[in-house]
Structure formats: C-alpha cells, structure tokens
Amino acid sequence: MELIASKIIFWVLALVIVTFSVLTVTSRRILRAATCLLFVLIATAGIYVLLDYHFLAAVQITVYAGGILVLYVFSILLTSQAGEKTDPVKRNKVIAGTAVSLAGILLCVWIIFRNGFNVVKTVSGGEIDMRTIGEALMGTGKFQYILPFEAISIFLLACVVGGIMIARKR
Amino acid sequence: MNVPMEYYLIMSTVMFFAGIYGFITRRNLIAVLISLELILNAADINFMVFNRFLYPEAMEGMFFTLFTIGISAGETAVAIAIIINIYRNLKHIQAEDLNQLKY
Prior knowledge:
The structure holds two protein chains of two kinds.
Chain A: H1 2-26, H2 30-50, H3 54-79, H4 91-115, H5 130-138, H6 146-167
Chain B: H1 5-25, H2 29-54, H3 60-90
Helix pairs in contact in B: 1-2, 2-3
C-alpha cells in the first residue's frame, strides 16, 4: 500500500514540476512566471521528502520558496507595471530555443538509459538524523565541512554588503 | 525507493532544458534569472537522486545541494540589486537594449 502511495506521489510531483517549469518559461506575464516557479520549488521540496532528505526539504522551502521568491516578487513589482505583458518572442528565437532544448533532452535521455547505473538494491537509507548533519557540518575531519561552511558565511556577508552598496539610493 | 532512478533523472532533465529555453528566449532580465533558478534546481535534484540511489550511506550530495542553495540565494540577491540599479538609471530591463556601459 505504501509503495503504491509513494508511486502516486512521485507521479503527481513529476507532473507538477514538468508542467510548471514549462509554464515558467513560456508565460508572458512575469509575475505569473514567478508564481509558477514557486510551485516548481515546492514540488522539488516534495521530491526531497520523497527521497527521505527532510532537512533539505525544509531548507528548500525556507530559503527558496520563502526567501528568494519574495525577493523576485518585490523586484518584479519594482521594475514593471501591473498587468504588463512582455513582447511576443521572435520566431527564430523560439525555433532556436526549442531545437536546443529538444536536442538536449533527447541526448540526455539517451545517455541516462544507455549508461546503466548500478543502483544499490538494498536501500537502507532512511532519514539522516540532525546530529549527524550537524557534526558533519561543523567537523574538521574527512568528509566534514567546516571550511565550505565558513567560506559560504563570508560569501553571504559579501553578498549582503554588495547588495546594499549597489541598490541603495544615492 | 520503488520509482526507478531514471524517472527522477528524466524529470530533472526536462526542468533543466525548460530553463535553457527560457534563458535563450527571454528578454526581461528578471525572467532570465528565473530561468537560471530552474537550471540550478534541476542540478540540485540530480545531486540528491545520485546520492540516494547510488551512495545512500554518504552525505556528499546533500551537502553540495545545501551549499548550492546558499550560493544561489546570494547570487540572486546581488543580481536583483544590479537589476534594480539598472532600472533606476535606464528605466527598462530588456537585455538586448543594454548596450551602453555607462554610469
């Protein structure tokens, strides 16, 4: 029963992701594109839950759906009038984009099915508990991540300072 | 884990190339950034799927995704600051018309 449920959940999430990611890039109203992106990001968090990475799903929802999307909506409202539609895309650009995308999808699907991954059959897995994540994030040993953690903290500080410097009123 | 790994990969492939399509066809800078988010997100899904299905006892994919989310947040913030500054100076954000590199 549980197996069927997870299958159904996967198909629903995959359908949502595919549909809304296509709508995100084809919608002519930019605010609507941002809303479609929100659905894609939430469905991605659902995929993470389905793969038993609960911590990462929480991070995805708080940072992406909660933070970045709000930033997008604010900047869209700041830089365009309400109800404004973008100009229709030029025909040769549509042809070029569709050709590149379809060729890429075909190539990737061909590689995926030809490659033959040796998937681990007995997936023990399950959820990683928070103590393990925290110790890996804060440790200095092998397979531990204190250095990238500190680097990203400096990076985010630089982003805060740079964002304020660039966007402030003079 | 009863859905085959290939289905996850196909889903993220479609998402990635939707992002590529938007990156090529869009003219509005914010729409280009939104397409970029799709591309990053598809790469994140791939990291997680490979981590879960091929090396379920390791955590490298999860930490790569964690740091990718952080870096894309910073990148979005700075890019939107630049876009707002461009809009304030030039009154539009159409990518093809931004050909003057003046203050």
